[in-house]
Amino acid sequence: MCGFFAIVFDENRDDLGEILVNAAKRLSYRGYDSVGAFAIEESGRWELRKAPGKVDEVARKLNFHELRGYKGLVQLRWATFGTPSVENAQPHADCDGQIVGAHNGNIVNSPVLRDELVASGHRVRGQNDGEILVHVVEQKFKETGDMVKAIIEAAKILRGDYAYAITKLDENRFFAVKKGSSLFVGVGDGFVCASSDQVSILEHTKRIIPMNDWEFVEFGHDYYILRDLHTGEVIHREPMISQLSPETTTKAGHPHFMIKEIHEEPQKVAELVHLMTELDAYDEAARKILDAQRTYIVGSGTSYHAALMGAYFAAKVAGVEIIPSIAAEFPERHGDTITSDDILIAVSQSGETKDVIHCVNVFSERTGREDFIGVINVLGSTLAMKAQPLLPIASDLEISVPATKTFMNQMVLLLYLAFKLAEHKGAPPRHPMPDFERIPELLTETIERSRPL
């Protein structure tokens, strides 16, 4: 998975190291194998410290907190290409120490690119695909003399799903690229930042710029320029105000986030129930399902289990067949039989799940349909911005890796959708409609009863 956070300030900050460490801690669920931090001062003095291990351990061992500067980058790695080691830890520098970058995702053709780079004289220190990315951008910059052109040219040969942040040390700006992996940009007073997840941005600003795949952004402390990754054409997009609360990034007295998020379930279900009754999107979704020849529902991990329950609810309540599929299997299992008369339901907590995004892309390519029904938690994510209609899970931020409140809200949402299907069929539901407003009370009672355990 991996995760990174990059930021540019208007002046040197003595607390830059602390800012980077705090961001890394909020992204710690994305990588456990190694951590690295880069900081550069206005004088041009810079440091890159990294090592295998978890955030607290590495930050303490390498004194991340003492880093200062106006521009910084931190990355946590979940090893795929290359074993956990100093050489494979990110961020990475180029041959001459003029470019530094870090990524999340996978560059699947990195072994081939590594051989080509070494043969052409590049000094590649490890086996990590993030380092290959930095050297490819370095090579393209040498050929074009322009970072915008270098990033566009690099995208033509870097294969895979990824996002990355990169900077030239003699420039007071960063670039961040999104191609198949999550990326958010935050705009604040005297700074702009980019991260793999909103969770590391929210303590600084709630002004978020959501990004689509095949886009990249150039940003300094007081500006940002969004561009198309194919053409370099400028894209105009205003920041949105994130509805996520910074308080959700703390444990609020609980021993860990999973327990905290279990205790948030009653409140989040209550908020969802109120939202469901206000949205016309459920009527639109029900009509699309009933008009379709076949309806598929896809998800990965816990979201797939919610999808299974959604298919069960539709059958039992409304007598409507919905075909569930693990997202990774959908293209091969159903890709050759789907038609424009079918509809897809995509279930994803993050809205950035690679396999689910791939399903949506395959569905669009094979059927010619741009619309799909999205059951998504993170508004502003890739899937949330594309879904037609969007059914928000409304669970707020979920940090714990095991899904709790998001799974509960997915179940409630899909059950409500099943009753909407029965309503639009014009036939009585096969089971009585539950009192949705009583579910939070029942959840609270269940949590209280489980305390002694």
Verbal overview:
With 453 residues, the protein is an alpha+beta fold. The chain folds into two domains: 3-242, Glutamine Phosphoribosylpyrophosphate, subunit 1, domain 1; 253-444, 3-Layer(aba) Sandwich (Rossmann fold), CATH 3.40.50. Helices cover 35% and strands 24% of the residues. It contains 14 helices and 20 strands. An eight-stranded antiparallel sheet has the order 3-2-4-1-10-9-11-15, with helices on one face. The protein has a seven-stranded antiparallel sheet with strand order 5-6-7-8-12-13-14. A hairpin with a 5-residue loop joins β7 (160-168) and β8. α4 (129-144) crosses α5 (147-155), α7 (265-276) runs parallel beside α13 and α7 (265-276) packs antiparallel against α14 (439-450). The longest helix is centred in the C-terminal third of the chain and has 21 residues, at 405-425. The chain is globular, with a radius of gyration of 23 Å. The chain starts with a strand and ends with a helix. The mean pLDDT is 92.
